[in-house]
Amino acid sequence: MVYQLYPRSFQDSNGDGIGDLRGIISRLDYLKSIGVGSVWLNPIYASPNDDNGYDISDYQQIMPEFGTMQDFDELLRGMHQRGLKLIMDLVVNHSSDEHRWFKQARSSRQSPYRDYYYWWPAEKGTPPARYSTFDVNRNAWRYDSLTNAYYLHYFSVRQPDLNWNNPKLRQEVYRMMRFWLDKGIDGFRMDAFQFVAKDPTFPPMPGLNETNYTNAYNHGPRLHDYLQEMNREVLSHYNIMTVAEGAGRNPTEAMLFVDPARRELNMTYHFEAVGVGNTPERYQLTDLKRVFTRWDSAFARKGWQSIYLGSHDQPRMTSKFGDDRPEFRAASAQLLNTFLLTMRGTPYCYNGDELGMTNIGFDNIADYRDVAALNGYQLVKSQGGSLPAYIQAMQRFSRDNSRTPFQWDASAHAGFTTGTPWIKVNPNYATLNQAAQETQPNSVLNHFRRATSMRQQHPVLVHGQYQLLDAANPHIYAYTRTLGPERVLVVLNFSDTQRSWPLPAGLKPSGQPWLNNYPTLATSPTFMLQPWQAVVMKLQ
What we know:
- The protein is of the alpha/beta class.
- The protein contains 17 helices and 20 strands.
- The chain has an eight-stranded parallel sheet, with helices on one face.
- Strand 14 and strand 15 (476-483) form a beta hairpin.
- The longest helix has 17 residues, at 167-183.
């Protein structure tokens, strides 16, 4: 299991309101106790922080707010002493505009660093349209008067895109990767890497908008050449894990990244599942089943995939896919964690989901911190759109929902900081927190521990064949996992009412459930499932 840790919001050690490396060090025993094997750390590199650390000004320095390189070395040692592996975010589709490469590049058209980035000379006219959801004008080109040219930025205006067509740039990236790998880190999660390959002639892409631009940018020319070169020059020389964000627009493309014969990466991390439910209407369970089943089928014989429902770029999983009303929050969070830990692939837990943390749903734009949310608000305002409707959408879908501080206990600011937190703490921390759940045997946290332990004890839940049952059922997600003679049944009631589910012919439970988020289960001849009940049982 990979535990995604958002450093800015995990634990503050010095009272400045910002989580830091020493804060993480103080919580390593907690991470060990919940059964995770690897920790993926969101960026901690030097950054002016326009996009919460994804705008990097020096790839080989630590952001002072997070601490020092000595703190990092101590963190890595502490993790390895506990048998935990550390995965770093590799952010090389773009840098910060404060990186020395970009400062040099924009100083002169003759700069040796000019071709580290993409430029469009103004004398050639307006550059071909490119869309940016992070830009206040949704334009991915920004005019720079110093050299009378436009530079490309798929993300924020302060995140100019790096030119991977330039072999010198690629060698700089490989040197930087070796720096961290030689320190002993255990792998990379590659941010936005699906976008690095661009045609430098910039052919027209008519009709780009918020719904189609990611597909248009995805999987550009020479992408796999770059990955294979990276593997030859860097990755193959270390025993590490590699996963690319958004690897492939579909399972066929995704397999290109992880087919062992191609020698590229270890694991895919696709967006189709978290794309379910991104509309005003509530998601359909049949859609979620269809996505997970399709992707499992594609990787049934080779390749490996990530299984996740939450991240720093998504709303809280319990609010989106579960039910965050007080009476159903715990059971639905337990169900979702049961699902993640009983699927084939590597499960990813976003920090706080092991507690069932929920969306905060800010109703005032002043409380938001995410550059995408703030720029989107300005765009709606400039176009005379409905600001209340925009805020209503942000309450459900903003990335800031998942970035509120970790809820450690019922003390001020949830025990996250003694100062003023960089973003507000969810008010439900008084009752929803780690300290309270430690003492409750049936809490979301202790259920998570039982689920991780169950997965570690039973290889059938890691490698076993997955078979969907009752595909058309709009409320029950049921499937079997089979490895050799061992067969396991998973039954999940994705609803807030009691549901009956007839056991298919030929399936006979054996003994007590391996995992059940309710004290009892009626099984014969029909399962009677309580709201958000999740059951894992061995079959005869």
